[in-house]
Design goal:
The protein is globular, with a radius of gyration of 21 Å. Helix 5 packs across helix 6 (114-123). The longest helix is centred in the middle third of the chain and has 20 residues, at 249-268. Strand 7 (151-155) and strand 8 (164-167) form a beta hairpin. The chain is an alpha+beta fold. Strands 12, 15, 18, 20, 23 and 25 form a six-stranded antiparallel sheet that branches. Helices cover 27% and strands 28% of the residues. The two termini are 25 Å apart.
Length: 428
């Protein structure tokens, strides 16, 4: 596709810092490396598979990182993970005069507090499940009696995508509530817990660019959250994803009406920032309901959406932080894309780590497979896993599902685990 930067004043040569070293950040760096507007990419804590995409920068805290970024002539920071956003990295970098792709700590509460998000939606009449927030000392049995099984229980704070439990029986629900409210689970993220109405339907990930004035939708994706095939087992950070998602005309109309209402609500409550707003939606026979917000790109949804983007990604970032999204048109490939997550046995509770991986990189190049590293480290030129989600295998095109599964079989990794049904659903 021919680039058109006639609407950008002067010759922009961006110097961008990407904060984070997982599969999502690897995909962001990969896409920005193709931009005609990006002069140099800097990486904070990159995984070894992404180090060739930029210059590594190290610092002990946000202030020192901002100082080093200034010294290196960096003008923009793109923050991948949720935790540093919640801890205020956006506040620090904005104070230093950087353009920041990501919210300040206050706006981050849309993700870091389920209660904050639910009350925001309730005040603005946005469709979301009925809910009740409880704290330590509450009577779990009495609270659960307000709902019908299955019971949906969510830790209020950040839990790495693992804080949602769905249980059929009240005894199991009480046990989980006791664990959450005591502070034993997720480093205290469940000391306040939300019980909510269970919804039947099809879940999709709707990411939108947001500049405080315009909410611009990105192509939809589907994320496979459960550890086992057929959406069974515990919730994880995500075991795979695909894009696009097939929708009926009515579903499209309902979703875009919801986006319009959401944009008005964000403006009304002054939740204005430059970055991404991820909306977890459940498509039901009563219309779309909002399940959750994230204030950053989804992982692993980003890995299957960005390969389909034809618009220069540097321009996308620049128009977002420059609050010019009303002038931006996004161009997309119609080809489907699949991301398969390679995990380690024992994930999500106790993944086996420090296991060597042997990856046929030349085969990936020959077969046009994209590889995004996640929980990986390098020792003496060899690769070992450091976490539960280890590697993302991504392919685009009509045969993308077959390609990722064929390649997965060639990776030598003793504790390798992956789902066998990624791509099943409203996609291929």
């Amino acid at each position: 596709m021919e680039s058109d930067f006639s609407d950008i004043e002067g010759v922009i040569q961006l110097r961008i810092l990407i904060y984070g070293g997982g599969g999502r950040e690897h995909a962001l760096a990969w896409k920005l490396s193709q931009s005609e507007l990006v002069e140099k990419i800097y990486l904070y804590k990159p995984n070894p598979l992404m180090k060739n995409l930029g210059n590594e920068i190290e610092a002990a805290d946000f202030e020192l990182l901002a100082k080093k970024a200034k010294e290196n002539g960096i003008d923009t920071i793109v923050v991948g993970p949720e935790l540093p956003l919640t801890e205020g990295i956006g506040n620090v970098f904005r104070r230093w005069g950087f353009k920041v792709f990501g919210p300040d700590a206050r706006e981050s509460k849309l993700e870091s507090s389920k209660v904050f998000a639910r009350e925001f939606m309730k005040r603005n009449n946005l469709p979301t499940p009925n809910f009740k927030a409880i704290v330590e000392g509450a009577n779990p049995s009495e609270c659960l009696n307000e709902f019908s099984p299955p019971y949906v229980i969510k830790a209020d704070g950040l839990a790495g995508g693992k804080g949602t439990k769905i249980v059929q029986d009240i005894a199991g629900a009480i046990s989980i509530l006791d664990d959450y409210l005591s502070g034993r689970a997720f480093k205290g993220a469940g000391k306040t817990t939300v019980i909510e109405e269970y919804l039947e339907g099809y879940e999709i990930s709707a990411m939108c660019l947001w500049d405080g004035n315009t909410l611009l939708p990105i192509e939809l994706a589907h994320d496979y959250k459960r550890i086992f095939d057929n959406d069974e087992g515990e919730n994880t950070g995500g075991m795979g994803s695909y894009s696009p998602v097939r929708l009926t005309d009515k579903e499209k109309d309902d979703i875009y009406t919801l986006f319009s209402d959401l944009e008005k609500a964000l403006k009304k409550e002054n939740l204005r920032y430059t970055g991404v707003l991820y909306i977890g939606l459940m498509l039901t026979n009563k219309g779309p309901f909002i399940l959750e917000f994230n204030v950053r790109f989804g992982d692993p949804e980003t890995q299957c959406v960005l390969p389909r983007l034809r618009t220069d990604f540097g321009k996308v970032i620049e128009y977002t932080v420059g609050k010019r999204l009303d002038e931006l048109h996004l161009d997309w490939s119609d080809d489907p894309c699949v991301c398969l997550v390679i995990a380690s046995d024992g994930y999500p509770q106790s993944p086996k780590t420090d296991v060597e991986l042997l990856i046929p990189f030349e085969k990936a190049i020959d077969e046009k497979i994209l590889l995004f590293g996640a929980g990986i480290t390098a020792k003496d030129g060899r690769l070992f896993n450091t976490g539960g989600r280890v590697l993302n295998i991504v392919a685009i095109g009509s045969d993308c599902k077959e390609k990722v599964y064929s390649f997965a079989e060639t990776i030598k990794f003793q504790t390798k685990y992956y789902r066998k049904d990624i791509g099943k659903g409203r996609c291929l």
